[in-house]
Amino acid sequence: MKNATDLAAKLKEKKGFSLKMLIGLDGFVDEIVHPVDKRQDFNNFTRIKTIAEFGERISKAAGLSTNIEMVTMQTKLGGNGPILSNALLEYGVKLTYAGALGVPDVHAVFKPMAEKAEAVYSLCRPGRTDACEFEDGKIMMGKYACLDDLTWDVCKNGMGGATGIAKMIGECDLFGMENWTMMPHMSEIWQGMIDEVFPLLKSDRAKPFAFFDLADPEKRTKEDICRAMGLIGKFEEKFRTILGLNEKEVYEIAGVLNIAVNDSSPDKLKDTVMAVYNALGIYCLMVHPVRSACCCIDGEYFCTDGPFCAKPKLTTGAGDNLNAGFCLGQTLGLDPLASLTLGVSTSGFYVRNAKSPTFEEVIQFAEDWGGGKVE
Question: Quick one: 307 exposed, middle or buried, by C-beta within 10 A (0-12, 13-18, 19+)?
Fold first, then answer.
């Protein structure tokens, strides 16, 4: 894989970088669970391997009832913002986090991240997620009523007011507010930023990056999604705005924007990404299917395959790790293809090792992938 070999060489030239980022706003305590198929004894079981098998088990219970045992494999920090931030911290980014990490104290699962961060603003209690993992995907079951507490006023007052937020953003290379779907007041927070913080941002420096991740907007109304897309577009005034989506999401956004998707086209994904990018009017739209990643920047389309892993150790957070790699690549000044390759390398390492890579580890992974040594 020549892209990976080229990436490794470029990253070696970037060692010793110094970048600052401000990320928020969600926070979840994730329990990674495996649904049990058959139990041999108290300590041993086989799990339900695929989502189809899981769905069939549930369907058979219609009109009756059933019991499905969930075995907790791991309890970890969750949420798009914290997982993204954790990956960036592993890379050595100087990062400030603001969001739902627990009140009055930061929840235990976030403390390692908080200790590595430059600063943490914990604004409300975290949500909770049961992440049912299968060999072909995952089903996330979230409980997040407490996130209703995180309003623009809470965010603003907890971070030193509009002036305090503007100062933090003014010192950052990248700013991001993640998980729009599960944050009930995120659109209002974005509007508050536009109305109260934008006028305070200085324009005597190159535009920093702003990164957004919707996090599966299917359950939100068309009106809500259209409003969110409009607000993200307004961030282009002060930032080089990046929207990250998975493949399912880009087709959903296309539908909301009344963009026709040609299912019979061999270039269906490319055509859709380009059309959505043009409609949004932002610096970059980045989309990550399971086996690849693509983006559109300055009207040009870029795409790379990823190091696909047939039997991953952990998939929850893979997309956030890909986002972290792509964002790091952009802030380091890498070209779009190298940024995409860093994204899929970060994700590829994560699903194989159940942890985010360090900068040295991702260089080694890229070299191994380029040399055909990654399975």
Answer: buried
